[in-house]
Specification:
Layout lengths: L4 H8 L3 H14 L1 H11 L5 H19 L6 H22 L2 H15 L3 H5 L3 H22 L7 H16 L2 H9 L16 H10 L5
Helix pairs in contact: 3-5, 4-5, 4-6, 5-6, 6-8, 6-9, 8-10
């Protein structure tokens, strides 16, 4: 929504007390905005602190979720909730590095249970594997927008991802079928047009 000059002028004409009242009413309706303002204005924790806490959160919740791997639908629903928490962290902190590192951490923690996943029927884990491949694709796109100073840390995560994919036969095949070349799992090897490659695969009906 665009705001006209007249509307902005009318808001500016509010008294201090009226503005305060309006702000608190808006914050009550928008919890995410409230958390973001709290973080930016008075939160003693830094972005790094928040990211470290989120890393522990991801690790702990994937561990708990691993008990339900046999129920593929429920397991994926829990993973999506963890992903939503990562998204909220990013919106609150604008943590560009964390947007990549936390999502790759989530993928890597899921794939720590390759042995359990491999015992499932392929039909049962298909949606989870497609979800993972989409996560990796999106992470590669984001990496291309990151400062290269972060690449060393990111490469450690990507090596772990590559190793775990190589240990999962069906996931490896799905990566190939959906246009994800695991040789790209190194910052310097990510194609410049990775976003267009993903868009093209989706247009052809893949990654679904």
């Amino acid at each position: 929504m665009e705001y006209s000059k007249e509307f902005k002028a009318a808001l500016s004409a509010f008294s201090g007390a009226e503005k305060d009242k309006l702000i608190f009413r808006l914050l009550k309706k928008d919890k995410l905005l409230s958390k973001k303002l709290y973080f930016e204005l008075i939160d003693p924790e830094t972005t790094d602190d928040k990211r470290n806490a989120m890393e522990e959160n991801v690790e702990g919740k994937v561990l708990l979720a691993s008990k339900y791997i046999g129920n593929a639908k429920y397991f994926l629903s829990v993973i999506r909730k963890i992903s939503a928490e990562i998204t909220e962290h990013i919106k609150i902190t604008t943590d560009k590095f964390g947007e990549v590192s936390l999502n790759l951490l989530l993928v890597n923690k899921i794939l720590e249970y390759n042995a359990d996943l491999s015992r499932q029927r392929f039909d049962n884990v298909y949606k989870l594997y497609i979800y993972i491949i989409n996560k990796i694709f999106k992470s590669l796109i984001l990496i291309k927008k990151l400062d290269e100073d972060y690449w060393l840390e990111i490469d450690e995560l990507l090596r772990d991802t590559q190793k775990k994919i190589s240990q999962n036969h069906y996931l490896q095949k799905l990566c190939i079928n959906n246009g994800l070349d695991t040789h790209w799992l190194e910052c310097e090897r990510i194609p410049d047009n990775i976003d267009l490659l993903m868009k093209d695969m989706k247009a052809q009906g893949y990654l679904r």
